[in-house]
Amino acid sequence: METLYTNKTGTKLEGPPPKGALTRLRRAAAGTPGAFLLGAALGIVVFLLLYGPSTLDVTYDSWIYNGYVEEDIIQRYAGWLYYRAAPWSWPLTVAENLSQPYGASIVFTDSLPLAAAFFKLLGPLLPATFQYFGWINLLNFALQGSFAVLLVRRFGLGRWYSLAAALLFVLMPVFVERVFRHDALAAQWILLAALLCYFRARHEKKFPALRFFLLASLCLTIHTYFLPMVYGLLAAALVERMLRQRNVLRLRKLLCPLLYLAACFAATFVVAYAFGLVTRGGGGAAAGFGNYSMNLNALANPSSFDWYAGSGNMDWSLLLPVLPQNFHQYDGFNYLGLGVLLAWAGMAAYGVVRLVQAVRHQDRGLARRAWGFVKGHLPLLIVCLCFTVFAVSNIVVVGQTTLFEIPLPGPLRRLGAVFRASGRLFWPCTYLLTLAPVVFIGRVMRGRWRGVLLAALLAVQVADMGGVLVQKHQYFNAGRLEKEDEFTTAGWQFLMENYNEVICLGNMFDYNLGAGIIRYNPNMQTNMILTNRGDFPIILDAYAPTIQWLLENNPIPDGTLYICSDRGTFDYILSGADANVRGYSTGHYYIIGNPVPGCPLEEHLPARAQAAP
Q: Of 29, 56, 110, 516, which is most buried by a Cβ count within 10 Å?
């Protein structure tokens, strides 16, 4: 008879579930819309308490130009501005006015391509200034709460217990740390949804094939780093499904999962092409695999990157000390929180007590149940082990000490180059490590102890993170975050409004400059590189020939500006420029182009113009 369910110890059982197990599953499935809405409401309330409503004003973008934690949100916004102004093309997310002459896909500016394409479609109805990042992060919080409630209820736990437990996931350090810093990577509800699909596949007769397929496709329209995580959980679910069936080696039982995986791969490739992941001027690889990895102390290390605090890192714990790590390993941040760490210590103590009791009474049932749990979840445990190995990378580091480094063959190096920030691949494990004590308390504890222990876990977790939460609240509720710099001056605005092309000489990856170029003129085009990945050498190789071309006294096209941030390069070009060319300086930048009467900036004349009688 086909196996239809797994009991709470992880043992695979055949036949229909007993009445108690069936009741739990029915209760878990009942009231799903209500639980989903309650979780969404929880997420929205937490978002408003943390960040307030200011970022929800779609016409207010000054806070973006300030940056947050680092300047990456400026990159996201600049990518959206260029994409919105560019004509529609194929693939859908290519902005022809960026990284000229090749164009660039805003998938590689992390501008949330699905949201960008949707709002570009609504472009004529939108105001001139429009940012969607506040609403996207509000949606991330709402869906984080919704899928957290559904995931906990999947284990037969009550609605209100599940809602309280969902607060742990809404305030997960790895989630909150990415909000408004890496907005696309804050869509971690995808992982909760994938875990929900995995556990549904364990208990339901019908495999959630469509749900897994939609999640895999959705990853490519939000952020590709979620794709291997979803596929890993899908692989675990498929293998477990196969192992629960008799005659697993029959061709039909092997062929169906393989055909399903092949169909998923084909469909996700189509989505990848349509959204510009496979396009000219783009590339999936980047240097740095092994540097942006997970430190072996990451689970208990409450330190992440934070520029705006001024100290270079943010302390996520009021009680635990910040542990040393290599610089780039801030991106492998996977701190569990003090509440979850203490819960695991309590679970370990409970396990030791049960083990002592079993040994004393010569009870072998505990060992059988433990082995049944491991055996029942073996594919998931293997997938989690793979996630962990990849997250730690081939350069294994504890603190600031490199324990060893494993040389990688070519194919593995190329795979690592695609997902160079490997520390992120541990996130499914982080969520499972948080889920485990929630389920343990809900399934093992009885009566009032269940609520008391969950409340204690939440209280310790939130109190320990209090410093960070207060800091974020104060930052986003300190009034309108205006930024005055060279990009807001009348002179800069005049230049950008009166020219339609900017060619940068050297400072190709300046996010502030990239956003400043298009801020006042949607018709602007530039060779700037604002993408994380791409064929950078092709564009960078044009730098020296362009300077040589200018020194050869070639006429500068009308409407074109050349910008650099080096005064020596600026003076060098002006020394050989045509007498009619003008140079301008503003803040950190030096600009060369044909003159336009009325520019309020100070003019720098070429040597030939200065020497003329």
A: 516
Question: Tokens standing for 246?
Answer: 């008799």
Per-residue pLDDT band for 595 (boundaries 50, 70, 90) equals confident
Q: Give the residue among 305, 302, 390, 306 at the shortest CA–CA distance from 340.
A: 302
49-63, 103-117, 371-385, 574-588: the lowest-pLDDT one = 574-588
Collect all residues with Cβ–Cβ distance below 8 Å to 104 and sequence separation of at least 6.
82, 94, 95, 98, 281, 282, 529, 530, 531, 534
Collect all residues with Cβ–Cβ distance below 8 Å to 102 and sequence separation of at least 6.
Answer: 280, 281, 535, 538, 539
Q: Could you give the CA distance from residue 569 to residue 575 in angstroms, rounded to a whole number?
A: 10
Find, among 487, 498, 491, 490, the residue nearest to 558 by Cα: 498
Of residues 168, 240, 161, 160, the one with CA closest to residue 197:
240
pLDDT reading at 20 higher than 70: no
Q: Counting Cβ atoms within 10 Å, is residue 558 exposed (0-12), middle (13-18) or buried (19+)?
A: exposed
**Which phi and psi (to 5°) does residue 192 adopt?**
-65, -40
346-354 long-range Cβ contacts below 8 angstroms, 24+ apart? 346/437, 347/436, 347/437, 347/440, 350/444
Treating both helix axes as pointing N-terminal to C-terminal, what angle do 189-203 and 133-153 enclose, rounded to 10 degrees? 20
Transcribe 476-489 into DSSP letters. Answer: HTSS-----SGGGS
Q: In one letter, which amino acid is 423?
A: G
| pLDDT tens-digit series, residues 105-139 | 999 999 999 999 999 999 999 999 999 999 999 99
Report the predicted TM-score, pTM, of the whole model to 2 decimal places: 0.90
Q: Model confidence at 359, in pLDDT bands (50, 70, 90)?
A: confident
| pLDDT, the chain, mean | 86
